[in-house]
Design a protein that fits this description.
The complex is a heterotrimer of chains A (669), B (99) and C (184). With 669 residues, chain A is mainly alpha-helical. Chain A is built from 27 helices and 2 strands.
Chain lengths: 669, 99, 184
């Protein structure tokens, strides 16, 4: 079978899993939904590997394969097919997506075991994977937008999965609205492309764009900026990032899958895929790179201050995606995608470990209340440390090689891109600090009461409450289930985490500078049309120098964290009081939410209220009421003739007769 | 006398009857005014019969008389029914058809 | 001679008519109508309608008016209120009546109908006699005749129903029906 057939199967299995779970949940055995979902993704993963093998069978130049199922719309000048594009980039993406999704599904089987909405969860999750795969495999803009929108919906459905929680539904709505803003950008970009180039098909666009556009022509810059709006909304970059921390209201596996490994990487994928257009609009690419840098540093600073465990990891995600966006915008496609892959591994792992810790804490997510789980949760702690090491780019881990490859590329590109490299290193230092902030808080120090209980073998059970507001809750439908699972006791969770741990440590060895460049060779057919890809090669010496700097910064950051959180734990408290304004600024996430509230939300609500009170109530209602009153007025007048007096009727009768007679007299004279 | 005299007389009587129907309030008197109008019609019919030299008009007038008799019967029955039920004998009081 | 008779009849008819509409006491109105009817009978005679005149006196003035007399006696005098509830009726009614008369007169006097201005053709001897009318009724207008008698029957039944004496549970026309008719 050909690679494209395997690709269609990759799409079909998650969709089938979703439908089976959604439609058949009443008739299936109680906890079968989880295994069906996981099995569907596992089959998709197997088929992705088959697609990879089938594609590698072909010569390097023949690896851009298209296939379409049917023609969606065909009219004068318009030809849209339901078609996929199977090339190295999309195969890379489907491997990452299906691989990580499979492990997360496995983890979820035990994590959400006692939840009443189990089947709903797995059908949503399968639908999400299907949409993400559709987005990645799409061969034209229409299917891309379809996948994009589906992914946004799946994210909304999963964030507000515990739908009886007000905070969760609000967060879901916020995510969806910001996603829609991104959708508008993407759709407008598609319209512009169609208007300029007359087609939606990727390969046709990429071949005709260099002829049609001159570099930095207004239209192409506009197209790229609109696509950036879409990419930034989906990938939670500045300024459209505010939804991601709130999205932590969803279950932890959801955070792992959607908001770390897959959906938020859709923006990175988009920029990489559209690289021919971005080559035509270097201005847009530069804007993208610098916004990526800004995001990176901003998120790292906030992650130092917030106290909710999942939100720290969320800001870490925003920061790391800043690296990826920076990488693919300046031409380091392979570096950015490599970081995408390794980030998927260690970020998913971190979330899984966090889920285990939160379960041990009985639902609390505040790291100031956690501590000393070293003995109580040995397996989880070990893997948490592994994930944190990879995040901090400790020498030898996957994060180490991938992050520094981006920074080395930036340095090599020269000019003012060196600023990106410097900023990236500063961010790496901060990353190491906050990554080990988590570790030292959670794993070391004196054991907290819940940890002590767990050492005695008893899992802490707090009253169900909302982790953000402390509101009392229930464990019925729409709320989290009563049981909490930790990795030490639940085999599926442990297996998933172990696999990711191995990948996080050893995944970097496929791109060691000077030793091997597996990804470079693999992704070459997609990116060889880009001069940035072809011409800029980081010399091995520079690469190792960069790696050395990165390693040193990482160790330094870990040391600082060790000092601040373990050796002298009174320092954070003193810093909080001394640098009070800075601390408040950081904890309030640089006041972005408040800014948007004032600048966007309030005016829109005020406009809506105005429209309601003035336009709706006065104008529209007024017109309708006036029409009704006019009719009523006329009818009152007409009703005057129905007085009930017989003599009045007789009068009208005689009067009418007289008038008629008069008429006839006049007519006949 | 010319036929037209009879016809004008008939018109006059008809107009008087119509005015009476509109002015008076007692149902009994209204019925009487209706009789006036019917008889004016009868007069016109008989005059035309004379004009044509044909007796059809006279037969018509007889039948009109029959109809008038029937109508009187029913109308008086109504008035008696009203009186029996102690309703005021005033057509202005019968306003239930008010819209 | 004929003119004198005509004017006598005409004045009598008009006087009777005005009496009907103007007299306050309904009993007097009935009597005025009787005068009117007799005057009309006279006019019928002038028009060679003997049978119709006789029927007018016997049936109309003799029977129908007697009915009126009975009912007027039964009902008694009715005080008609002075105040006119319908705005404009007092003013419009005579106006319209006059307008009606004027229009009809114009129509009659200005008509192009032939022989309106004449006395009519010479008529044969039995014109308007009971014999002639009887023949017509039973030959040409037989169905009409029968229909008229049916009408009389229906009217008689209707009158009985309408004015029926209330029985111990209410009159036959007004006895309340079963559940559905209350308050209708």
């Amino acid at each position: 079978m050909s690679a494209t057939t395997y690709a269609w199967l990759v799409l079909a299995f998650p969709l089938a899993g979703c439908l089976v779970n959604a439609l058949g949940w009443r008739s299936l055995p109680p906890r079968a939904a989880g295994w069906i979902g996981t099995g569907a993704i596992a089959l998709a993963f197997v088929n992705s590997i088959a697609a990879l093998v089938a594609m590698l069978d072909k010569p390097a130049s023949g690896r851009e394969l298209t296939s379409s199922l049917w023609t969606y719309a065909s009219a004068e000048g318009l030809d849209i097919k339901v078609g996929i594009l199977v090339d190295p980039l999309s195969v890379f993406m489907i491997l990452v997506v299906t691989g990580v999704s499979m492990l997360i599904h496995l983890y979820s089987i035990s994590y959400l075991e006692s939840d009443r909405g189990y089947s709903r969860y797995f059908s949503y999750l399968n639908f999400f994977v299907f949409s993400m795969l559709l987005l990645v495999l799409a061969g034209n803009f229409v299917l891309l937008i379809v996948g994009w929108a589906f992914v946004g919906f799946a994210s909304y459905a999963l964030i507000s999965y515990w739908y009886r929680r007000n905070t969760a539904t609000t967060a879901g709505m916020k995510a969806f609205v910001i996603n829609v803003i991104g959708d508008i950008g993407l759709v407008l970009a598609a319209f512009f492309i169609f208007r300029e180039l007359g087609t939606f098909d990727y390969l046709a666009i990429f071949s005709s764009a260099p002829q049609q556009f001159t570099t930095n022509e207004g239209v192409v810059v506009a197209i790229c900026l609109l696509m950036l709006v879409g990419a930034f909304a989906k990938s939670a970059q500045l300024p459209l990032h505010t939804w991601l921390p709130d999205a932590m209201e969803g279950p932890t596996p959801v955070s792992a899958l959607i908001h770390a490994a897959t959906m938020v990487t859709a923006g990175v994928y988009l920029i990489a895929r559209m690289h021919p257009l971005f080559l035509q609009a270097p201005t847009a690419a530069d804007i993208s790179a610098f916004l990526g840098l800004a995001t990176l540093i901003f998120a790292a600073t906030v992650a130092l201050a917030v106290t909710d465990l999942k939100r720290i990891i969320a800001y870490s995600t925003i920061s790391q995606i800043g690296y990826m966006v920076m990488g693919v915008s300046i031409g380091g496609y392979v570096a950015g995608l490599f970081h995408l892959m390794s980030h998927a591994f260690f970020k998913a792992l971190l979330f899984m470990a966090a889920g285990s810790v939160i379960a041990a804490m009985g639902g609390t997510q505040n790291i100031d209340r956690m501590g000393g789980f070293r003995r109580a949760l040995p397996f989880t702690s070990a893997l948490l440390i592994v994930g944190a090491l990879a995040l901090a780019a400790f020498p030898g881990t996957s994060g180490f090689f991938s992050k520094d490859e981006i920074l080395a590329f930036a340095y090599e590109r020269g000019g003012f891109y060196v600023i990106l490299a410097i900023g990236g290193y500063v961010g790496a230092f901060l990353t190491a600090i906050y990554a080990f902030r988590i570790v030292f808080r959670v794993v070391y120090r004196e054991p907290c009461p819940e940890a002590r209980e767990l050492e005695r073998g008893h899992l802490a059970h707090a009253e169900p409450q909302n982790p953000l507001t402390g509101e009392k809750e229930d464990t019925d439908v729409g709320f989290p289930g009563p049981e909490h699972q930790i990795a030490e006791r639940a085999r599926p969770m442990a297996v998933a985490m172990a696999v990711l741990g191995v990948a996080a440590i050893f995944g970097g060895y496929i791109q060691v500078p000077g030793v091997d460049h597996v990804l470079d060779t693999f992704l070459e057919p997609t990116f060889e049309d880009s001069p940035l890809f072809r011409d800029i090669h980081v010399p091995t010496g520079t690469a190792w120098a960069g790696l050395a700097i990165g390693g040193v910064l990482s160790l330094l950051g870990i040391a600082v964290a060790y000092y601040v959180y373990v050796v002298a734990p009174q320092i954070p408290e003193r810093l909080r009081t001394r640098a009070h304004t800075v601390y408040t600024f950081l904890v309030n996430k640089w006041y972005f939410d408040e800014l948007y509230d004032t600048v966007v939300y309030r005016p829109v609500i005020a406009a809506g209220r105005f429209a309601n009170t003035v336009l709706e109530r006065v104008v529209v209602q007024g017109i309708v009421t006036a029409a009704v009153d006019a009719v009523r007025g006329v009818s009152v007048i007409v009703r005057g003739a129905q007085s009930g007096f017989v003599r009045a009727y007789a009068l009208l009768l005689v009067g009418g007769f007289a008038a008629l007679g008069l008429y006839f007299l006049i007519v006949s004279s | 006398m010319d036929i037209s005299w009879y016809l004008v007389l008939s018109a006059l009587l008809f107009a008087i009857g119509a005015g009476g129907v509109l002015i008076r309030r007692s149902p009994l008197v209204i019925l009487l005014c209706l009789e006036l109008m019917l008889n004016a019609g009868n007069l016109a019919l008989v005059a035309f019969a004379r004009q044509h030299g044909d007796q059809d008009g006279q037969v018509f007038a007889l039948i009109v008389m029959v109809v008038a008799a029937c109508e009187v019967v029913v109308g008086l029955g109504l008035i008696v029914a009203m009186f029996r039920r102690r309703l005021p004998l005033n057509v202005d009081e019968m306003r239930d058809l008010r819209g | 001679m004929v003119a004198v008779a005509f004017f006598a009849g005409a004045i009598g008819a008009v006087a009777g008519a005005i009496g009907v509409i103007a007299l306050r006491n309904p009993f007097y109105s009935v009597l005025a109508l009787v005068v009117h009817l007799v005057a009309l009978a006279g006019l019928f005679l002038l028009l060679y309608a003997q049978f119709v005149a006789a029927a007018q006196v016997v049936v109309y003035a003799g029977a129908v008016m007697v009915l009126y007399v009975f009912v007027a006696a039964y009902v008694g005098a009715v005080e008609e209120p002075i105040w006119e509830p319908i705005p404009g009726q007092r003013f419009l009614a005579p106006l319209l009546a006059v307008a009606l008369f004027v229009e009809l007169s114009i129509a009659i006097l200005g008509t192009a109908l032939s022989s309106i201005d004449t006395e009519g053709p010479t008529v044969p001897a039995g014109f308007g006699s009971p014999e002639a009318i009887g023949n017509l009724l039973l030959e040409r207008f037989l169905i009409v005749f029968e229909a008229a008698s049916m009408l009389l029957l229906v009217a008689a039944v209707g009158a009985i129903v309408l004015a029926g004496r209330p029985s111990p549970g209410g009159s036959s026309a007004s006895r309340p029906g079963t559940a559905g008719e209350e308050g209708s």
